[in-house]
Write a structure and sequence with these properties.
By secondary structure, this protein is of the alpha+beta class. It has a single domain, classed as Alpha-D-Glucose-1,6-Bisphosphate, Chain A, domain 4 (2-Layer Sandwich). Helix content is 27%, strand content 32%. The chain has four helices and seven strands, in the order ββααβββββαα. Strands 1-2-7-6-5-4-3 form a seven-stranded antiparallel β-sheet, covered by helices on one side. Helix 3 crosses helix 4. It is globular and about 35 Å long.
Amino acid sequence: MGKIADEYGVATDHATVHMKKLLPASVEVVWEYLTESDKRATWLASGEMGLYVGGQAELCFNFKNLTTETTPERFLPYESNHRQQGHVTLCEPPHLLSYTWNERDGRSSEVRFELQAQGEQTLLILTHSRLPNRNEMVSVASGWHTHLGILEDRLNRQQPRQFWATHARLEAEYQQRIPAAS
């Protein structure tokens, strides 16, 4: 499988992380892994998603289903049945999906997936915007990078990488990669 030059996310401004991942499947298959609860649960989170603008976007995280490792103490509240709600803001099957992320207190960030065919593979372009601070940008970048790696493993039909060990390594790398506010 071909690789893109740099799969690390980048901060495109003080509140946005942008990353690209070349995946070993067609746009239609990747779309299914973004939108169908049972397939999304294998790499991110289960939950119903209304595929229309304004539709509910529920994510139910169960990290115990993604890895055999012990969950680090600071992430224990998210270990199983951690639910967050959002709403679909754009939906153009099978190429574009955007939804609010973790709506709470009238605030939310937004995640956008764009899918582009690259031969028999798919270039997934992820943009997570409206992040409140650098710490959240580091957390989101390392989280997405880890989750997308697991998606790649699933699509390659191989044993997925360990979540928490990968996340810890990437979090340390993103601490160096994402600049502090000036």
